[in-house]
Amino acid sequence: MMSVMSFPALPSAPSWFPGHMNRFTKQLPALLSRTDVVLELRDSRLPLTSINNNLEGAINKWRAERGHHSTHVTPPSTTTSRNAFLGYGGPICERIVVLNKRDFVPEWGIEPFKRAMKAKFPDQTVHFASCNKPRDIRSLSEMLVSMSLIFWTCLPLFFVTMELTKNVDIAKRNPHATEMNVLVVGMPNVGKSTLLNSLRNMGIPGRTPKALQTSAQPGHTRAISTRLKLSEDPLVYSYDSPGVMLPFLGRGDRGAERGVKLALIAGIKESLYDIEALVAYLLYRLNVLNPISPAYLTLLPPGSHPFTDVEDFLEHLAMRFNMLLRGGKKDTVRAAKWFVEWWRNEGGLVSASVPENLPTGSDRTHAPLLRRGWGFDFEWTVDASMNSIGGGFESAVQMKMEECIDESMRAASEDERSGVGISTTQERKRSWQEKQSMRAAKSKAKFAARKAA
């Protein structure tokens, strides 16, 4: 039985931007000036929503200052000093986007997503990882420190072939750099500290004690960490940083949905939301990920059908796990909290096991207007192009993902142009700053006129 659930009504997005986030945002340009590689962590379930546009601006400026305006490599002039090409302010200006918690998204969408991102953002290296899978951590570690086939004794060859090998190594293709510095950034609770602990354990021989504390709650890391050694040969150091939320998530439906998504992955304080609003959106998304047999059906008795009503679902869930109040009344609030926690752990693994092929009707066509998705940021209408298998299916999924990325970027630009992404408090602050600047300019002009007279 196919479930068709209407999009739930969501509360307005709250603002959660503690002082330590604002402090780190101001420190970021100075940190980037002594950084060679930026590891930007995002959540695989929210690969677009977990993009922080404030960080994007600072990172793009950092790359532009080091001559990385585009993906094309500009050969150095013959008069350029060799020292200008070394690390710590030289050409090592890499940005790696790490999609963490890859085991929480279906495997069939990973390669199409990589190709879609490569088509839309060719200057970004995308790497999927799960901190509990040594293979993923080893692959990322090797990307930073593995042996290079390029030697700096042949600079022309380096600049011809750098783009072909940029993902193979970073540190060892720069043997004249005494060390390489990595800065890890991202939104709250995407796994930055956990990833650094794993990279440190992988890159340093012998027993390596846990260097950074981790927490399931957002905002645990509140300051820049001391430098952590990730590799001894070559020397690679890293900084951990506080997770930075957007100062304002936006007005209207887009801002409301963005806030609920981040609250579901514990990227924003859950206490800012009514738990039933989170369950309503989660139920909708699980129905989109697998309209035929959503992941939550594994919690209910065999033969249960997908739900489209939140209250009905929570009552069945409370009865199933004997969550009752005095007098036999169903404790739906407790059931809602339990359901969200279940999805954040084993439930996410269940939802990621959805097959790529959908059941078809007797005429071998998909159900009309059936909606499918991948993660929580991608949703599309199934059409004839999705009937193919193998490479044809992957190409069709890639095309759908590219359309979703275009729509997301268009919506972000529209919000920025219309001012929807700025809160009233930010508007008042900006207006006050403009007035202060005008007063300062007038005072400076008067002083200059008096001095000239």
List keywords for this structure.
six-stranded mixed sheet; single chain; two-stranded antiparallel ribbon; alpha/beta; 453 residues
The major sheet is characterized as: 6 strands, mixed
The tally of beta strands, per DSSP, is 8
| Class from secondary-structure proportions | alpha/beta
What gyration radius follows from the Cα positions, in whole Å? 25 Å
State the strand order across the main sheet. 3-2-1-4-6-5
Overall pLDDT confidence = 80
Q: What is the chains' assembly state?
A: single chain
Low-confidence spans: 70-89, 147-168, 361-368
| Run of helices and strands | HEHEHEHHEHEEHHHHEEHH
Distance between the termini: 87 Å
How much β-strand is present in the residues?
A: 5-15%
Shape estimate: globular
The proportion of residues forming helix, as a percent range, comes to 40-55%
Number of H/I helices = 12
